[in-house]
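Ticket #4471: structure export looks truncated?
Reporter: QA, pipeline team
Priority: medium

Steps to reproduce: submit the single chain below to the structure queue and open the exported record.
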Amino acid sequence: MASGELLRKLFQTYRRRDDQGFVQVAERIIAEERAKRHHALADDLAHILGGTAPASTAAPPPGVLPRHMEVLPKDRERDSLLLEIRQPSNSLADAVLTEENRQALLEIIREYRHGDLLRSHGLRPRTRLLFCGPPGCGKTLCASVVAGELGLPILYARFDAIVSSYLGETAANLRKVFDHATRGHWVLLFDEFDAIGKSRDNSSEHGELKRVVNTFLQLLDGFAGDSIVIAATNYEALLDRALWRRFDDVLAFTLPSRDQVRALLGLKLLGIRHAEVDLDLFVDDVEGLSHADIERICQDAIRDCLLAGGDILRAEHLMRAIERQQRRAHVVEGAEREARTREEIGR
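Actual output as written to the record:
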């Protein structure tokens, strides 16, 4: 059953003949029912609201968005979309996490689901989150997990369009992003957040980006939308110190431990039979790699197996995939060394 506050809002929008507001509240009710695993009810409500077949029996054509989602803000300079809507497909079962991070995500999900209760006592759920850590360690995945568990779409901020060469336009684009996020219920994701959040004390940064940081701080402080805002960065040391205080919680992601490596291998190979492979023998070979690297190895091994005409993964498939990853890492390391050398020469 939907909360009393949402039902009150629903009736108020009907009384005001506020069609857009009615749709937004109705979709929030549908999202809550889906988050409670009441999928049949959520599908029926979505069918009634949209006049289309339930999601469980007929998915909408690719690229077709609900009526209220069709108009996304654009950059005035290039007429590029500032946001991209993504439908999450992940749950907590898809992530191998430290116990600390798993508990943190569970608490965040629970608080959002019971946000009305918290607000009735003068509190608010933690909805402003910072994910930091090395590349490929699950930050973006966990943003998708939060969205998937709550039944919310992801509103992905496109920094290639947000960052503008025109004075003041980047800040204006950020305002458009936050303004759009207030008109729905989303997980608003700022991936590669250091692109706009670098320290204002950094002498190498010009004045425009410093103004962008100021704008983001103001927008985050004043954000009144009923959405979760997640910023993810690989370079947390570059972030402005004032940004840290604006987030309700910070989750640090790290390279997987030995136990997590073993769990990752098992999880990513669930889609193919591999009973004859002792995964424990491969832990040493992939220890020190990121979650994304290990997933790539498993996908490569499965691909090799299928293309060879087999349906049972064998040890040699994994070995070839690991060797391929090692060669790839060697090339990447060489390119990074060369880039650092050129940067030092340029200084």
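Status: closed, not a bug. The export was complete when the record was re-opened. Leaving a note from the reviewer for reference: The first strand starts at residue 83 and ends at 86.
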